[in-house]
Amino acid sequence: MASLLDSLRKCSVVVADSGDIDAVAKWRPQDATTNPSLLLASAQDARFKHLIVRDIDQLFVNFGCEILKHIPGRVSTEVDARLSFDEEKSVEKARRFISLYESRGVKRERVLIKLASTWEGIRAAERLEREGIHCNMTLLFSFAQAVACADAGVTLISPFVGRIYDWHKAARKLEDIPIAEDPGVASVTKIYNYYKKHGYATQVMGASFRKVEQILSLAGCDLLTIAPDLLQKLSSVDGEVMPKLTIENAKRHSIEKTPLEHQTFLWQHNSDAMAVEKLSDGIRKFDADARKLEAAVAQLTRAAA
Q1: Could you say which of 26, 69, 107, 114 is catalytic?
Q2: What is the dihedral of CA 224, 227, 232, 234, to 10 degrees?
Q3: How far is CA 86 from CA 81, 117, 158, 290, in A?
Q4: What pTM, to 2 d.p., does this model score?
Q5: What is the DSSP letter of 222?
Q6: Average pLDDT over residues 12-39
Q7: How far apart are CA 101 and CA 110, in angstroms?
Q8: 189: left (phi over 0), alpha (psi -120 to 50) or beta
Q9: CA-derived radius of gyration, the chain
C-alpha cells in the first residue's frame, strides 16, 4: 500500500515549506516555498555557506535557484515585510527579484513572489500579475483577504491553517481543538468552496500546518505546503487519502459572490480579531527574522573575508 504522502499527491499538489535544499531534494515536491524565517535557519547551516552573499536579495535568489534544481515547478521568494504597506516599493522589489532570477536563466514562470495580504500588498500583486510576475499571497487569515486576492487575479494564496488554530486554541484556553472543529481547516474549506463556486482562477494552497490531521482534512485543496517534519510523518504511514475538497461539492454550495472595495475590505477584515492580530504579528515576526538574517549574513561574510 502507498504511504499517506504518495496517496495525498493524487489529491493535491505537494509543496515543501523549507529553505533546506537537502530536504527539498529528498521529498521531491512539485514546488517549494521559502520565507525569511526558513532562510535564517538555512543561512547558518554550513552545508549552504556557498550561497551566502551580503546582498540579501541576491541571497534569496541564490537559495531559490538552488532549490529549483531539485523541483520541476516553482519557488516562492518573499518581499521584505517592511514593505507590507507600500505598494510601489513592493512592486519595485518584486521586479528586482525577477530581474535577478532572469539574469541566472530562470524564467519568471518558475518564480512566485510572496507578498503579505494587506490591501497594499494585494494591489501590488494585481499590478505584478499584469506584467506576468506571478504572486503568492501570504499571511492570509481572513475571508476578506481571500476575496480581495481573488478579485485582484493573483496566482495563488496561502491561508495559514496552523496560526489560525494556534490563536483560537490560546483564546479558548484549550490544549487542542478537535479536527472537525478546527477553525484553520474551516477557513481554508470556506475559501476553496468560494473560489470554485464562482470560477476564480486563483489557487488555494493550505499552509502553516501543525499536525497531519489538518493536512488530510484539506486533501483535494489545489496545493498544500508542508514542512519536512510533517512530510516525514506522512511518508512513514501507509494509507489511502480521500479528497475532502472537490470542485463538484464546492459548486453545490450557496455562497454569494461578494467583491470588496477598499473600505469594505478594511471593515470586514477588521471585524475578525484573529485575522487582525495574526496579520500584524506575522509581519512583525517576518521582519524580525529578516533583520536577524541580515545580521547573521554580515557576521558570516566578515568571517569569510
Answers
A1: 114
A2: -30
A3: 10, 12, 20, 17
A4: 0.95
A5: S
A6: 92
A7: 9
A8: alpha
A9: 19
Give burial (CB, 10 Å; 0-12/13-18/19+) of 247: middle
Query: pLDDT exceeding 90 applies to what percent of the chain?
Result: 88
d(CA 293, CA 287): 10
Q: How many residues does the chain have?
A: 305
Could you give phi then psi for residue 115, rounded to 5 degrees? -130, 145
pLDDT band at 77 (very low <50, low <70, confident <90, very high): very high
- Which secondary structure element, helix H or strand E, spans residue 114, and what is its range? strand 111-116
Q: How far is CA 178 from CA 19, 168, 185, 188, 209, in A?
A: 31, 12, 11, 16, 14
pLDDT (tens digit, 9 = 90+) per residue, 85-131?
A: 999 999 999 999 999 999 999 999 999 999 999 999 999 999 999 99
User: Which pLDDT does position 59 carry in this prediction?
Assistant: 94
Q: Could you confirm whether 10 is annotated as catalytic?
A: no
Angstrom distance (rounded) from CA 209 to CA 176: 14
What's the grid cell of residue 244? 475532502
User: In this structure, which topology does domain 4-299 adopt according to CATH?
Assistant: TIM Barrel (3.20.20)
